[in-house]
Design goal:
The chain is mainly alpha-helical. The chain has one domain. The chain is built from 4 helices and no strands. The longest helix is centred in the N-terminal third of the chain and has 18 residues. The radius of gyration is 17 Å and the shape is extended. It starts with a helix and ends in a 10-residue tail after the last helix.
């Protein structure tokens, strides 16, 4: 193996090790917690939220707590739609 391949494997291993340290917050979702549609909206405005979060501590990119999977799904769809999707139909 060459150095570039070993560097890629080392980076991937370090990222996997770091991801193993992540933990989920305790279930604090309440009936009024953000759901699918608010996740979709937050995904659409992700760039503007990120820029605002650089200048203000009251703006965040991702709502915590949320209702879990449906919020995440909406957020992913919104961010993908804003970012141009998966590129399947892109230029060839």
């Amino acid at each position: 193996m060459n150095r570039a391949t070993l560097a890629k494997i080392g980076t991937l291993a370090a990222l996997l090790l770091l991801a193993a340290c992540a933990h989920q917050l305790p279930a604090t979702a309440q009936p009024g917690a953000p759901g699918f549609f608010l996740g979709l909206f937050h995904g659409f405005v992700i760039v503007f939220s990120f820029i605002g979060s650089l200048f203000s501590d009251t703006i965040s990119v991702y709502a915590v707590p949320n209702n879990g999977g449906w919020y995440n799904f909406g957020f992913a769809l919104g961010a993908g739609a804003f970012g141009g999707g998966s590129g399947i139909l892109g230029r060839r």
